Amino acid sequence: MKSMRRRLIMSAAVLASAVGLAGTSLAQSKEPLRFGLAMPLTGSQALFGADQAKAAQWAVQDINAKGGVEGRPLEMILLDTQADPRLGINAVNRLINVEKVPVYGTAWSSVVKAVAPVSNRSKVLELSVGANSPEIAKLGDYVYTTYPLADVDIRAQAKYARETLKKERAAVLYIHNDSGVEGAEIYRDTFKELGGKVVAYEAYDAQSTDFTGALLKVRSANADIVHIQGLVSDLPQVIAQMRQLGLKQQVSTYSAGYNPKVLEQLGAAAEGMIVSALAPSAEQNEQVAKFVERWKATEGRIPNGLPYTQYLYDLPYLVADLYRHLLKTGQPLTGENMRKALVEIRKFDLPTTGLLEVGADHRVQKPVYLYEVKNGAFTPIATVK
Question: Quick one: signal sequence residues (predicted)?
Answer without folding.
Answer: 1-27
